[in-house]
Amino acid sequence: MPYKQALDIDSKSSSLIRHHFYCLDMAACVDQNWISKRRNTMNNIIKSTLALGLVVTAAVLTTSPAEAEIHSRSKDLVVMEARDLPEQAQTPGNSLFLHSDNAGGTYLYVEQQQGARLSVFDVTDPARIKLVVSTPLAAEGAFDFVRPLGDYAELVYFRDSQKEAVLDLRKTKRPVLRMISTVTDLGPAEALGESGFLVTSQAHKYTPAVARDYQVIDVAASIPTQLATVNDVKHRVSNDYTGTTFLLGSNGLTVVRRLSVENDYKVHQMQMQGN
Length: 275
Fold this sequence. Notes:
- There is one protein chain.
- It is built from three helices and 17 strands.
- By secondary structure, it is of the alpha+beta class.
- The protein folds into two domains: 2-63; 68-274, no CATH class.
- It has a five-stranded antiparallel sheet with strand order 1-2-17-16-15.
- Helix 1 runs antiparallel to helix 2.
């Protein structure tokens, strides 16, 4: 296609040049040999420019970060390691969760630096994950995301102090962490509709997550092939709609994508928008 496009542009350019000099010839009777030489020179310039454009484009594609992604033989599985993601994704963390807003966006919230920082990533399109905000927290050490509290909040539990807080998600891209004064543990609470909880006096007991190494295996070929290893994973979460799995390990965030599920979801979304 690039070569065909180059020929089309060159052909049109030559046509324009012939027409342009034809007008000059009609107006001033310029020597035809000079016109021919001038036209050849312009054509060579156009061809050189197109060739340079193709070389630059090829160089950009060669150094594109997408080349670092790991693809399965079937091209259905894609592994995006921390170095393929925004820089903040390379920071290890302790906990993460997904949240979707009413506008159709999906966001990944990651606790980092032993509770000193919260990073939010826009994962609506798994192929184009973007950092939304990375903000410092005046928190009391490492914490875990425990459970949703309604549609716009997430319960947070601090490991050392055993205190609780609420991450306010009413502003999805600017979440606010608020300590709560209740002495009752909300972790095992049962929802009473959308406005209340039924709780017990049993205290929450933090159970440390056991770090495990995960291997991503491609079975599309006759012999299973290991695509990637994700070390020291303590937490993971999946988006069933897009078929995306997020693994939080010692090297930061790793994303495993299933392109067939992504494409089916995109088609469904377009159909919904068309109705």
